[in-house]
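Chapter summary example.
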Amino acid sequence: MWLLFVEAGIALGLLVFIVWWTMFSGQKPKHPPTQKVLPPKDDAIE
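The structure predicted for these 46 residues follows.
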């Protein structure tokens, strides 16, 4: 019976490790994304 608990604990630990690894892996962007600048609206046209 204790062997089932050990196996379940290992499986749970492996699942948590895989989720943690995929969430925090990879490089973060060094520069924030730039916003597109829209041209000013022409208020003369009505």
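To summarize the output: The chain is about 50% helix and 0% strand.
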